[in-house]
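Crash report, auto-generated. Payload:
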Amino acid sequence: MRKFAITTVAIAGVALMALSGCSSRGTTTSSSGAAAGFKAGSTIGVALPDKTSENWVLAGKLFEEGIAKAGFKADVQYAPATNTVSEQQNQITSMTTKGAKVIVIGAKDGSQLGSQVSAAHSAGASVIAYDRLILNTKDVDYYVAYDNEKVGELQGQALLDGMKARFPDAKTYNIELFSGSSDDANAPVFFKGAMKILQPKIDDGTLKVVSGQTDIKQTATAGWLAQNAQTRMDTLLAANYTGSTVLNGVLSPNDTLARAIITSIHAAGKDKPVQPVITGQDSEAASIPLIMTGVQYSTINKDTTKLVAQTIAMIKDLAAGKTPSTNSTDYNNGVKVVPTYLLPPELVTKDNAAESYKNTPSLEALTK
Ligand code: GAL
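Recovered output after restart:
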């Protein structure tokens, strides 16, 4: 009964994120490059990738609402499921042509937008990379994201902690590793953060990657597609975990892939007698009940409302001719250090889920 109550609260918290917003302006370090300002009613372009997880669907809705409430005209576009890169390039070009004053980009492929952001810049638009960095161009003005490397570190640590708790008698642990789509600039950063924690334990023999697949090229999941993760997990299990070989845990970079990995493990009967520890990210509604019942061990709370609110705060500063606040110089896109506003991600397990999701931010904060 108690379990049910907590689950309901957690799901309600996640669902409410869709309807709410929050301002989170913290430490400030100025950066140069403020635009000359622009008027209320100006167009703000928002180019988002395909809907690879719930957070992207929510972001589009929040940008529509938040930009309108801030007094501007929102032009929100998603890259479709096919031809995503060229379609996103075309969308950015069309936003530029239509005179957008700011173009916010959740890149489908951060390495392929150089000429489009350069044209946007020449036309006088400011470019904000949202959630995923845009690489190898000097024409990206700001980056706003959750601390991606920290996300990976939290996932790596959760995997270790979870296995220790679930397999108290084990001295060593058998694991497998998954990473995100190789066209997403975040994927290697998540993986780097996780390996910072896991590699020393692989080196000292505490962790054994039974398949031997530890290179990001081997662990990648094209398109962040669940089916690709499920197929790879099926193959890994069939080739390496026959008989009594126990699987203790899997590093999964997000919730969509975690659920696919869980399905594969269940089909192979490797969830018995003890459910392996599976990590995740994004606090997706379908994963929260799995976390409350221990089927998925952890996720990461990266409240999309806060990220969108921070982006809108940047847009408002740019409109007023002010330099937006930034708090990190950690992100070099290959050509320059991009002034960045980083928000802190939070690890969620069943122990802190209710607490983590209880502070539903207010709509006023997003829009004032
Ligand atoms: C990443 C994002 C994650 C997850 C993933 C798949 O770039 O930071 O939160 O959504 O894409 O969509």
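Post-recovery validation: Residues 163 and 186 are 26 Å apart (CA to CA).
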